[in-house]
Amino acid sequence: MLSIGTPNEKLYKRPLSSNSNNSIQLVKKQTSLITSTKNNLNLIQKSTSLNDDDQITNDVNFVNLFHQPSSIKPFLSSPTTTAYNLRQTWNNQCQFLAVPAPLVIAGPSGSGKSTLLKRLMNEFQDCFGFSISHTTRKPRNGEQNGREYYFIDSETFEKSIQNDEFIEYTRFSNNYYGTSKKAVKDVQNSGKICILDVEIDGVRNLKNTDLNPRFVFIKPPSLEILEQRLRSRGTETEESVQQRLQRAIEELKFGEIEGMFDLIITNDDIEKAYSILRQFILNEVEALKKSRGM
Ligand SMILES: Nc1ncnc2c1ncn2[C@@H]1O[C@H](COP(=O)(O)OP(=O)(O)OP(=O)(O)O)[C@@H](O)[C@H]1O
C-alpha cells in the first residue's frame, strides 16, 4: 500500500481561499522550496511538474501549495509509483483541516497596530488568537502555566534559545520573555489565525521558519503625527516617546525593504486603514469559517 507523509504524521489540506482546490503539485526535489509562499509559487512554476503517468521515486518531492512546506515529506512505502497514484492517495488519505497562516503585524510603536488588531478580533471573534509566550518570571497570583504564559526557568529558556526555538525573545527586568515557534503552531492547529505583533528581528526570524505567515506593515502618515499619537495615548514618559521615535526611523526603513512585507498600510485614517487590512485577510477568514461549517 502506498502512504504519504512520515508514519504518524497527520497530513492535512489547507484552504488558502474559498475557491482553492487543495490539490498537490508534484515537483522534482527542491530543498529551497522552504521559503515564503510567494517564493514557493515562483519556484514551483520554474520546476518540473509531473504528469499523471510519470514514475515517482524517493527522489521526488511532493508539494501541497496550501500546506506548510515543512510537513511535506514524501514517505513512499512502496519503492515506485505513479504521480497519478500519489495524487489519488493524497486525496483519499489526507484530512481536511484548516491550518491558517499566521498574520504578522509590524510597525513603529504608536503606528496603530493594537487599534487595528482589536477591531479585527472584535469583528471576527474566534477566528484569531495570540500565541502564549514563555517567561522566566514567577507566576503571579491566579496565573496558570500554559494560560497567561509558559513559566520556565532560565536554564530551560537559554537552552531553547540555543535550539533556535524562539521567533523573538527579550530580557526585561532580569527575566526572559519569548515567543516560541511551537506556541504559534499550537494556535494554528487549534484552527485560528495566529496574530504576531513583532519587531524587526521577529520579522526576520519568521522569514526563516516554516510557519509561512503573511506580513503586514503599519506605517504612520509621518513622524510628526506618530509623535502626536504617542503623546496623546498618554502611556509614555518623555524619554520613552523619544526612544520610540528614534526606533521608528529604523523601523520605517525596514518596512521599505522590497519584498519584506506582503502589505504596507499607511494609517492616516483608521477607517481606511482597517478596511484595507480587513480586505487582505478576508479570504482566509472566510475559508476558516467554511471549514468549520459556519
Ligand atoms: N488613524 C488614526 N488616527 C488617529 N489616531 C490613531 C489612529 N490609529 C491609531 N491611533 C491612536 O494612536 C495611538 C497609538 O495606537 P496603538 O496603540 O494602536 O499603536 P501600536 O502600534 O499598537 O503601539 P505599540 O507598539 O506601542 O503597542 C492610540 O492612542 C490610538 O488610539
TrEMBL record:
The UniProt record lists the keyword ATP-binding: yes
InterPro entries for this protein: GK/Ca_channel_bsu (IPR008145), Guanylate_kin-like_dom (IPR008144), Guanylate_kinase (IPR017665), Guanylate_kinase_CS (IPR020590), P-loop_NTPase (IPR027417)
EC number: 2.7.4.8
SUPFAM superfamilies in UniProt: P-loop containing nucleoside triphosphate hydrolases (SSF52540)
Keywords for this protein: ATP-binding, Kinase, Nucleotide-binding, Transferase
Domain Guanylate kinase-like: 100-282
Family: Belongs to the guanylate kinase family.
The name this protein goes by in its record: guanylate kinase
Organism annotation: Dermatophagoides pteronyssinus (European house dust mite)
